[in-house]
Amino acid sequence: MASIKQLGGRRFKITVSNGYQPDGKKLCKAKTIRVPQSIPKRGIRQYVTHETEELERQFKNGYSEDGNLPFQEYAERWLARQVRYAPGTLESYRRMLGRVYSFIGTIQLNRLRPIALENMLVELRKRKYRGKPIGEATVQKYLTVVSAVLTDAKRNEIIQKNPARMSDLPLTRRTTQYIPSPVEIRKLLDVLAKEPRHYRLFYLLSMCTGCRRGELCALRWSDFKFNGEGLLLTISRSAALSLEKVSWRDQPRMAAAVRSSSPPTSGGSS
After folding, report:
1. Rounded-to-integer distance, Cα 231 and Cα 250, Å
2. 79, 101, 121, 265: which could join 105 in a potential S-S bond, CB 3.0 to 4.6 Å?
3. Element (H, E) at 206
C-alpha cells in the first residue's frame, strides 16, 4: 500500500508500507521526489505514479533497505536471494557469515568502517582448527564473503562505498601442495586393503581420478562404462555435503567440470 502527498509545486512525498515488525509497528519507507521541469504538467501524475510503483516494488522485494539496516539482517536477505551459487558454496557462505555476526552483525550498514572489519579479522586469527591457528588465507575468505554482501548493498545504492575493499590486509603466503611419494602411497594402499570395500573404492577412485569428494559421492553405476581400452568414468554431477543434508547438483557450474577419466584396472588393491 502506498500514499502520496503533494508538498508544494512539483515536490511529492511517497510513503509505502510492507507488513509489520514483530513489535506491531508498521514497516514503512518514505521518499520525497521532485518532478523534473522537463516533465509537462499533464505528465506529472503519471511520473509520480511510476515512482510510487517503483519504490513499492523495491521495498517489497527487499532492495530498498536504507543504510540503517544491521549487517546481519541484510546479509540474511542477501543469502535468501542467491541463486547463482552451488548449494555447497552457499552453505559455506552461510556458515562463514554466521561466525562473523558476533563481530559486525549489529553494526548498521552505513556505520560499518574498515577498522571494524580489521578488528574482526584480528579476532578470527585467534580461532583454531585442530589445535592450530587458522591460516591467513582462510581468514581473508571470511572478508571475501562479507565483501560480497557489501558489494550487493553498494550496487543497490544503500551504501556509497564497500569498506571491505578498503581494509588493510597482510600478504598471504602461497603454499606448495604436498604430493605423497610412491612409498607413502603404497603404505596407504596397504592400510586400505584392510578396510571395508566402500572405503577402498572411495580412496582409490580419489587417487586414480582426482575427483573431488562431492563428485565421488554423486557417482552412479551408469557413470562407469567399459570401452575397448578399459573402464571409462564420466563425472557429470556433484553432491554438496553438510551436517544437515545432502544437496545434489545435476548441472555443473562450468562446462569443464563434466569430464571423463580412465581409472587403472589393475595394480591396485581389490
Report:
1. 22
2. 101
3. helix 197-209
Give pTM, 2 decimals. Answer: 0.54
Element (H, E) at 149: helix 136-155
What lies within 8 Å, CB to CB, of 17 at 6+ separation is 1, 2, 26, 27, 28
SS3 129: strand
Average pLDDT over residues 76-86: 88
Q: Are 203 and 192 in contact (CB under 8 A)?
A: yes
Q: Which superfamily is assigned to 71-166 in CATH?
A: Tyrosine recombinase, N-terminal domain (1.10.150.130)
* Cell output for 164: 571491505
Specify whether the CB–CB gap between 101 and 70 falls below 8 A. no
Q: Show Cβ contacts of residue 236 under 8 Å, excluding neighbours closer than 6 positions.
A: 223, 250, 252, 258
8 backbone dihedrals φ, ψ, rounded to 5°: 135, 135
Give the tens place of pLDDT for each residue, 162-221. Answer: 999 988 776 666 667 788 888 998 898 899 889 998 888 888 888 888 888 888 888 888
Compute the half-sphere exposure of residue 223: CA atoms within 13 Å on the CB side of its CA. 20
Q: Report how far residue 205's alpha carbon sits from residue 209's, in angstroms, rounded to the nearest whole number.
A: 6
Residues 193-204 as b/e (b if ≥16 CB within 10 A, e otherwise) read eeeeeeebebbb
User: Could you tell me the residue ranges of all domains in the chain?
Assistant: 2-60, 71-166, 182-261
Q: How far apart are CA 200 and CA 268, in angstroms?
A: 10
Reading the block at residue 40, the C-alpha cell is 509537462
What are the DSSP calls for 152-169, one per residue? HHHHTTS-SS-GGGG---
Tell me the pLDDT tens digit for each residue of 147-166.
999 999 998 878 888 999 98
Name residues whose C-beta falls within 8 Å of residue 129's C-beta, 6 or more positions apart in sequence: none
Q: How many other C-beta atoms lie within 10 A of the C-beta of residue 156?
A: 15
Q: Which three cell numbers stand for residue 96?
A: 562463514
